[in-house]
Structure formats: C-alpha cells, structure tokens
Amino acid sequence: MIDAERRAFSRLREEIIGVVGAGTVSKTQRGLLARGEAGCGGLAAVLFGLLLAGPGAAQHTTLNPAAPPPASAPGSPRVADKETPPEPGQTTVRVKVEVVNVPVTVLDKRGRPVIDLGKDDFQVFEDNVPQTIRYFSREMRQPLRIGLILDTSNSARPALQFEKDAASEFVFNMLQGRSSKHQIFLQTFDATSSIIQDFTNDPELLNEKIRGLKAGGGKALYDAIYFACREKMLTSGPPENTRRVLVVVSDGRDVQSEHTLEEAISMAHKAETIIYTLGNTSYGYNNPGDPILEKLAQATGGAAYFPLERTPGADLGTGYFSHGQIGETSQNKGLGASTGIYSASRLIQLADSLESIGRELNEQYSIGYTPTNTKADGTFRTIRVEARRKGLVIRAKTGYFAPSE
C-alpha cells in the first residue's frame, strides 16, 4: 500500500513541477517533495502538493503590445475573460484581453469616404483622456449585422411604396448575393414592433418580405429601437466579432412608446449599435420629429439624412408638389398636392441616401486601443476620434460600457 502511495505521489510531484515550471521550483521545495514522497503518504502528501502548486492555479496572461491581437481582439469593446476548461489533473488558466475596437468612418466635405489615412493620422480619447492606438487596419474584417427598421404607421402610408423600393435596393447592395458575410433583419413598427424577417444574408428572402409590407396603426418609434437593440443586436454574437448598425426610416415622431428617447439611446449604447436615420417627411412641412432623428444618430455615432428636404421642382419630373406650394385648384387636388405627392425623384433621393450609408459601412477603418482606465466599474465610457488632417468628418461609436466585477 505504501509503495502504491509513493508511486502516486511521484507522479503528482512531476505534474506539480510541470504546472509550476521546473525553473520556479527551488532545491528546498524539491527536497520537501522528495520527503513527502518518502514519508508523507496519503492525503497529507496530496494536500502538500496542491499547496505548492497553488501559485500556478490562476495564472493571468497580459497582452503583449508588440504581439498581434488574438483572434477575437479585433472589435472587442471591453475586457474579455477567457477560461479554458481544465483537463483532468490540470489547472484552470484565465486570460484577460483588454481591447476596445472602434470602427471609424472618415468623409471629405462632399461626403465621400477618405481611405488613405494611416494610424498616425488619428487620435482617440476615452472620457477626454488620450489613448494609445495599438491596432490599426484599413480593412474591416468584422461582418455587419444590420437592422432595417421601416415605419409602417398610418402617417407613413403615402411614402411606404417609395421606402420599400429604396429598401430593396439597399438590401441587394449590402448583401451582394447569398454568399455575403453580412446579415440583415427586417423590422416594422406602428403601435407595436414586429420582426418580419430574422437575420439573413438572402436578399431575395428579405425583398419578398419588404414587398408585402402594409401601413396601418399607431406610432412607437422609441419602443422599436429599444426592442431591436435588446432582442436582436444583443444576441447577434460577440460585439468584438461584428459591427452592429440600425437603419431607421421614419418621420421621427412618437406617440405611443412605453420607453423614452433616453432609454432607447441607452439600450443602443449597451448593444454597441450605431443608428443611421432617414427622415421621410415631405418638403414644405415643419416636422417636430427631425431633431429626434438627429439626436438618435449623433448620440450613437451614426448620421441623420433628410433626403426629401430638397426644394421640389415645378413638375413631377424634377420634384414633387408639397402642401401650400400651389393653389387650391381642382388640378392641384387631383395631383394630391395637399398631402405632398411624390414624383420619381423621391425614390431616387431615398435610394441615394441608403447608398451613402452602405458606402460608409463598406469603407471603414478599424482602430483598437487598451484603455488607460482599468477599473471594472460598469460605467459608460465616452469615445472621441479625431483626425489630424483638417476638413474631414469623423463618425465612430460614441462609447461603451466598461465591464463590471
């Protein structure tokens, strides 16, 4: 029995030295292990061995600044704790990787993407504190997860067909066939929100659902954004591996939401989702919802587009007649000018705006940094990205929530 215990303890000793490292075991410790093998025996020897191995049981590896980031590091918005399940007789190893990844869009004064910048052309600030850029790439490897949200309330009825046509073109441009790594889900809202099609990279499937949309009901914009971020974006895979974007087509008005605008924005921050908004209010109308669309975009790092605010032409070939543009004649009523009837230019304007969004998303830089604030306090950290070159427009996510203990 004693011989069996000695053989078992001998094997345990070698495993302990293998875990701790032969170079870290002193002569004294080796002598103690040898005496334990000779006379400690049984449970006492095992406990002694575990005590000696203790310092190696929770090893932490820090990221080497000179080494490339691990596979999951690009896009990582916070501290990622990785734990490898232990094999029998092995210890658990926990690895902490601290990388905040920021997809960045850079535009010139004409709204065209600028793609010739280098790492030294950018500055990053977290809570107004300068950060050191550790990772930089002109190519975005993370696939897009896009939520396309269309307003199907009663007030959107006159514009819905144009929005459907423009949305269909956007889907085809972004997915480029069924082999695309990007995915889009389709959501509509009136008084309630509905997921019409879950995440897919099949443009035909999405456009079949888009063509079948109908208007009707109330209007709950804030609930729609809150729902999309909570139910779809938060479950769309690790944020370090995807870019999350909502594209919202609406007039910005809300009359029935249970959530507030601030709650919708906070949920977008939590889901690390950038929001692009497209206003669908006709030219000539004073729309109180426009500032709401601007705030949603600015607070999340996106952009607000108002393609229908361009001055209309004098006929249906160059614009559309809006309320009050021409007199109350029978011809005017026949054209539907009192409700802002639209010409073909409306579709072109909407499609151009969606194309601009797609172009931005396909021409982004990837910037990664390790935050100087290492507190795991769960607070929201603001992010600001600046370009040293003058006259450029920078769009990036506005912040992230730090991990909590």
CATH first level of the largest domain: which class? Answer: Alpha Beta
Structural class: alpha/beta
Query: Secondary-structure element order, as H and E?
Result: HHHEEEEEEEEHEEHHEHEHEHHEEEE
Task: Sum up the overall morphology in one term.
Answer: globular
What is the helix tally? 10
CATH architecture call of the largest domain:
3-Layer(aba) Sandwich
Q: Count the beta strands.
A: 17
What is the averaged pLDDT score?
76
At the fourth CATH level, what is the homologous superfamily of the largest domain? von Willebrand factor, type A domain
Q: Count the domains.
A: 3
The percent range for strand residues is 15-25%
Provide the spatial order of strands within the biggest beta sheet.
10-9-8-11-12-13
The name CATH uses for the topology of the largest domain is Rossmann fold
Name the helicity range.
25-40%
Distance between the termini: 47 Å
As a whole number of angstroms, the C-alpha radius of gyration is 29 Å
The largest sheet, given as strand count, sense and whether it forms a barrel, is: 6 strands, mixed
Please mark out the parts with pLDDT under 50 across 5 or more consecutive residues, or reply none. Answer: 19-25, 35-84, 91-97, 313-342
Question: Overview of this structure, please?
Answer:
By secondary structure, this protein is α/β, with parallel strands linked by helices. It folds into three domains: 2-57; 61-139 and 366-401, no CATH class; 144-363, von Willebrand factor, type A domain (Rossmann fold, 3-Layer(aba) Sandwich), CATH 3.40.50. It is 32% helix and 24% strand. The protein has ten helices and 17 strands.
